[in-house]
Each structure stands twice: as structure tokens, then as C-alpha cells.
Amino acid sequence: MDLVERYVHAVRFWLPRAQQDDVSAELAEDIHSQIEEQETKLGRKLAEREVASILKQRGRPVLVASRYRPQQYLIGPALFPVYRLVMIIVALCYAVPWILAWISLVIFDPFYRSHFGAGATRVWGNFMGTILFALGAVTVIFMLLDRVQPNLKFLRDWDPTGLPAVRDPNRISRINSIFEIAANLVVAVWWVTDMWSTPAFHWSTTVFNRGGVRIILTPAWKYFLWAFLVIAVADIALAAANLARPYWTWLRASFQLVLTIAGSVAFCWACKAHLLAQIDVPNLSPTRAAEIVNAINTYAAKTFPIAVAAGVIIVALSGVGRLIRLRKRPTPQMQNAAV
Question: 208 φ, ψ to 5°?
Fold first, then answer.
């Protein structure tokens, strides 16, 4: 049975040295038994092509050897689900904001767009290098944890009574609603009382004038001021409704999405609008004050792509994500209403 010996020898090559003799003997005996059984059934010796067919059914030597080898993992099944979750979080937390900021720069920044061709390769090279380094570092950390996990006390000693309670994702915390009402109420009252006493609401632009320090904004500021005030009042009304009925519905979730989009748009355009017109500070020359004003407006404008990226993420997670969750898991109140 030269063909069987060659097959067993090929399997032996892929086995660990300590297992080669035992596994080779076991495999050879098993194959010979199968051949003898087939020969007894047919009443004759098997031809070489028939033996080859039996061996082919068993598979390639390297695959057969893998069944006898100990299972080897870079990261074992115990930690792999956690590893996969951390990899997704790291990738999303770095890649998504970076890509959104890059797209915003290309769309809204003429200077960046004019140098897009020359710097694209370098920018994407740096991005890929950084994210691969981050993912590689996570992999190495989990690989080391997997090697020492039998000795990790927190994996062995745990109390089932400490498991978190099951929470309805569509239920609204009344504490959060109270906090939203208080925070927005403070902002609204401050704007109506303190800002109303300034000329800001009377088509002037001076919003701070104390101790010799005066801050003057452009006339466009009043539009953003009114926009933020309207959004704050609407947030108070929505939070009050959520406090009375602490579960999300399609109507309130959609209203919250609209407010989130409106607030994000207003904030992003405020960054780009060059709202600061003038600052007057004692012992500060007009030339130096003008340089500071220009620097503040320039840096605020440069944060516009970052603000857009952050706004998209917030809208996607807190607004669109909530509506998707409501579609998949309606609240009991919504289900009763449908009935």
C-alpha cells in the first residue's frame, strides 16, 4: 500500500513532532481498516485508483493534519467578542470623524480643495498608518490578555447579582428630562433678562461691556441668538412632555431629531460666520486687538468641518438611531395605540 504510506507521511509532515508517531499510526490503521472493509464487500483487492478515491474523500494532508493539531488562536473565543467590539469602537471613533472632517474640508474649504491633489496621498497615508497602528495596538493588547486570562482574577471572581438591570432603550430618564429643563431654562432666562438689557436685541452688536472690556459682534449675531433661544424654548417644551410621559414616540422622537439638526446647523454656521467684530481692552492697542479678532474668527472658521462632522455623528446616533430603534422595538404604549 505505497499510496497509503505516502499519504500518511504527507499528513505526518504537518503534525507537531510530539504527535507524529501516534497520529500516523492511528491514521494508517484507520485507512487500512476502511480499505479492508471495502475489499471484503467487493471480494477483491482494490485498485490504486480506488484507494486514491478513498484517500481523496479524507481530504488534503494539510487539512487532515489540522484536525489533529491543537486549536490555535491569536485571540481565543473567550475574548474574541470583546476584541471585536473594541476594534469596531476604535475604528468608528477615529475613522468616522476623520472622514467626515476631511469631506467637509474638501466641500467647504477652497484652500484645502485647491491643494487636494498634492496632499491627498500624504493625508490618506497618514490616516491609514495611524488607524492601522491603533488597531494593531488593540490586537497586541488582547493577544497578551488571552495568554494570561487563566490568571486574571476579574474573569474568575464575579458576582451574578452585580449584573446590570435590563433597561428599556425607549424609556426616557426623568432625571435627564429635569436636567434638560433646568439647563435650557437657565440659558433662556439669561438671554431674555441679561441680554435683553444690552443693545443686542436692539440691532446693536455690543454684547459685553464691563470693567473697560467691550466685545462687539457683527449684526448677524442676532439671528443666531434668536435661533438658539427658539431651540432652547422648544427643548424645554419637549423635555416637559418627556417628563410627563417618559417614553419615546414617533412624534416626539421626530421633533427631537428636527431640534438636533437645527441646533447643529446653527452652531456650524456660527463657527463660519466670523461673528466677532471688535474687542476693546485697556492697554491693548487697536492693531493688536484687530489681530486677535482676526485670529479668533479664523480659528473658529477652521473648526467648521469638525463641527459638521460632530453634528452628523450626533444626529445619526441620537436622532436617526432612536427612530430606527423605535421601528424595531416599539414602546408598549405605541403597540397599544396600534391595537
Answer: -150, 125
Do residues 279 and 292 make contact, with C-beta atoms less than 8 angstroms apart? yes
pTM over 0.85: no
Query: Which of the two residues, 66 and 267, has the higher pLDDT score?
Result: 267
Q: State phi, psi for 171 to the nearest 5 degrees.
A: -85, 140
| pLDDT single digits (tens) 82-134 | 888 888 888 777 777 777 767 766 666 666 666 555 555 666 667 777 778 88
Distance CA 229, CA 196 (A): 12
Distance, in Å, from the CA atom of 83 to the CA atom of 159, rounded to the nearest integer, reads 23
Q: Letter for the amino acid at 249?
A: T
